[in-house]
Design brief:
Oligomer: single chain
Radius of gyration: 16 Å
Helix content: over 70%
Order of helices and strands: HEHHHHHEHHHHH
Length: 206
């Protein structure tokens, strides 16, 4: 990436519908390159090797719904993405991801655009909805990683960061939390891997 472009990105402190659509599209493109890696980590709750595929197809469904739409403000874009993800949700990880997007949309409802503090709060709404999607939440899973990323984002948002700076903190908090999942969940420790859904969630934001 050219220095001038990176410099412009580093100044962004407000996200509208167009930016949100671009961010999700970029996340989907990046995630697709990591699908098999995420699949290879899949040992909990069932070692069926499809967590990455399910998350990517769910994310792609959200992106596809936005691509068919015209110009949207942030609240409407987030809502449309959430509906698209829900309609295309695959597997446990996909359902959790779709519920995260649903919570994110709720936090951004009615907003034409959002600044960093509002985005950080919406992230927390997303985590709450993701937890509600699971009957018996287990530590050491995608939920744990998402929660710690939200905490990192909340703390960072108080320092008036740019969007890039906020996401850097969120992603680092995710990698740190992901590393701890091996010790939190016996199945992961036995296999010597980190949680696949948690890994996928960090990659999405990466």
């Amino acid at each position: 990436m050219e220095d001038g472009v990176q410099s412009d990105l580093s100044l962004i402190r407000c996200v509208g519908g167009a930016e949100f659509k671009q961010m999700l599209a970029g996340a989907s493109w990046h995630f697709e390159t990591k699908v098999e890696m995420v699949n290879g980590l899949n040992v909990f709750p069932v070692p069926d090797g499809d967590t990455g595929t399910n998350m990517w197809l769910t994310l792609k469904s959200a992106v596809d719904s936005l691509e068919r739409a015209g110009e949207l403000d942030l609240g409407k874009a987030a809502d449309m993405a959430a509906v698209g993800a829900l309609m295309g949700a695959r597997g446990n990880s996909g359902v959790i991801l779709s519920q995260f997007l649903r919570g994110l949309a709720r936090g951004l409802s009615g907003k034409e655009s959002a600044g960093i503090p509002q985005l950080a709060r919406a992230f927390q709404y997303g985590v709450v909805m993701a937890y509600r999607a699971v009957t018996k939440p287990v530590e050491g899973t995608i939920l744990t990683v998402a929660r710690e990323m939200a905490r990192g984002g909340k703390k960072a948002s108080k320092e008036n960061p740019s969007l890039v700076e906020l996401l850097e903190v969120v992603v680092q908090a995710g990698w740190d939390a992901l590393e701890r999942t091996t010790e939190q969940l016996p199945a992961l420790k036995e296999a010597g891997v980190v949680d696949s859904g948690g890994c996928g969630f960090v990659i999405l934001f990466e």
